[in-house]
Amino acid sequence: MSQQVEMIVNAQWVVTVDEQARVLKDHAIIVDQAKILAIEPIGQHDFTTDNLVERPNHIILPGLINAHTHAAMSLFRGLADDLPLMSWLNDHIWPAEGKWVNENFVHDGTQLAMAEMIRGGTTCFNDMYFFPNVAARVANEAHMRASFAFPILDFPSAWAQNADEYIHKGLQLHDDFRSHDLININFGPHAPYTVSDEPLKRVNTISVETQMGIHIHLHETAHEVDEAQQQNGQRPIERMNDMGLLTPQFQAVHMTQLTDEDIELLAQTGTHVVHCPESNLKLASGFCPIAKLVNQGVNVALGTDGAASNNDLDMFGEMRTAALLAKGVAEDPAAIPAEQALQMATINGAKALGIDDVTGSLAVGKSADFIAVDTQSPETSPFYNPVSQLVYSTTADKVSDTWVAGKALMTNRQLLTLNCDSIMQRSKEWHQKIAAADQQN
Ligand SMILES: [Zn+2]
Question: Which domain holds residue 35?
Fold first, then answer.
């Protein structure tokens, strides 16, 4: 007696990124009630469905997890390039944010970012930006998985006036989404140089009680570390450690300035590192020594950062850059082999965000968050090894399908939960306004 299920996807290859790192030929993924019910050889199981998806020239893999971005900043893509971090922020990004960021900006910018991410095989993103209430709403409408690290700053923005108000509004949002299947809310103190001790200590106290994550830009540049040492005689990581912040709930983004002692501290405390290689390269911020971190047992996830400093949200590109850069930094071609790079873009992101029991790999019982990649093109031929193919030669436009919790968000490159024409039109309108004002300055 065969069992009727919601969907079966037959694929040439299934790359599981599970604990055994299984790469399976001619397998079917059986999906029911938003979850993976089984992964079986094609034709050798007893499941039937009215929704059979045939992908005979494709690799199915877990949806990619962008562990650090500022989605709405996609509307600033290309506004200011080729500058160091502090002048990029002080002279361009912060003034533009002061002028333009409001609920509509976040609504339209987040939709633009999600359209790009879904088309590039990203099924989950971790966002740090103003009006996370609006971003969470549009993510929910698009049926995308997301974590929102609500911003906390000492200074006012369009969203809140002071650290207390940021925290208050963020905790309200956490309550609103407490039992949501796809959306999580965490703390997003912006950086050590924009948030003082008092709010950081409060964040830590609540995080200990609630197990909410803490997501922060840390040791992004040598300038940040030098200035902190001059001001209070401590490296930022030491300051975080003194306040008890370094725990498995803590996600340190960038980490380009690390001593061997810092790496040991990260490993001992179970702190996660989110590596954003393209943003670090573009702003010449420095190099995160990810091969050393991985060798010490630190969990390293991958993020694009915002499209204003990358300038895309392409996790295939990011994965390739991470693997290549790691080899150059470690002066070792064996550093971060393809399999590890793929883990960084999938299961390691889920671990950093505290959702690895739900997503990040293809395993029975996990959410059906996965993508299909077309392998039939001159750029990806011939075909020796699926994992090598995914990391070193696949581009985002080869993603044909994207599913989150068993629901198709893209089929054969057609977006199904977002209106691409309308998103492009609104992006054009924002560009006209922002560019006109920029020329007046
Ligand atoms: Zn960032």
Answer: 3-62+360-405
